[in-house]
Amino acid sequence: MAVDSAEQSAARPDVSVIIPTLNAARHLPQTLSACRGVAETVVVDGGSTDQTVAIALRLGARVVLADRGRGIQLHRGAGEARGAWLLFLHADTVLTGNWLRDVREFTGQPSNRLRVAAFCFGLDDASASARRLERIVAWRVRHLGLPYGDQGLLIHRELYQSLGGYRAWPLMEDVDLVRRAGRHGLTVLPSIARTSATRFRQEGWRRRSLRNFGCLTLYFLGVSPRAIARLYGK
Fold first, then answer.
1. How many distinct structural domains can be found in the chain?
2. I want to staple 229 with a disulfide (CB 3.0 to 4.6 A). Which of 32, 116, 186, 234 is the partner?
3. Residue 54: enclosing H or E segment and its boundaries?
């Protein structure tokens, strides 16, 4: 039986997906194609020189221009978004499975307006190294309450604003926001956010993992994100 437009609108969660981009033409089509079913998708571009902006417009996203820097772009996107709920997503991360149902169920509970949600972490790689890293991330999230941005972050606009939003940092902006929300306010949704493993394959699984661990360690030791970024050449 056909569903009329009013029913379709009612079933569509009032969620704005916010995606920061910089020369993301390779992965963006798949990411955007998987995002259908929400109120809107906002691509915040930091000065791409490839076809990123054209692809975003062709696939129905609203494009916002911002200064380069993931924290800056995410902050700008949140300010431009119209939805009551904000879903921050990396440009090379694809939401899979019944993610839209998970989002609909989470946002449908009034008490979750005081919580944040992330998806399970996955990689688009069949190697044992990828499965090992997925287990490490699952442990980190379960025991430390620290999902990264490549797991997506779903948060009600009012909670986001009360926390002060994303800071204009070159990295660690995701961990910073989750820490301000508190580990006991975190829900892990069952669907997988599957991220490209290209950087791990290019840099080496161990080297990239040690780099990420080093950034996190320095952050917890109180080193400023800008100093960490200079140290790692980001």
1. 1
2. 234
3. helix 52-58
pLDDT tens for 147-162 read: 999 999 999 999 999 9
Integer Cα distance of 109 and 4 in angstroms: 25
Q: Is residue 55 part of a domain?
A: yes
Amino acid making up residue 201: R
Q: Decide if 75 is inside a domain.
A: yes
Q: 110 is written with which tokens?
A: 């009034």
105-143 burial, b for 16+ CB within 10 Å, e for fewer? ebbeeeebeebbbbbbbbbbbeeebbeebbeebeebbee
Provide the residue range defining the domain that includes 126. Answer: 5-197
Q: Strands 93-95, 116-123: parallel, antiparallel or unpaired by DSSP?
A: unpaired
In this predicted structure, the answer to whether residue 89 has a pLDDT above a threshold of 50 is: yes
Decide if 108 is inside a domain: yes
Q: What is the CATH number of the domain that holds 37?
A: 3.90.550.10
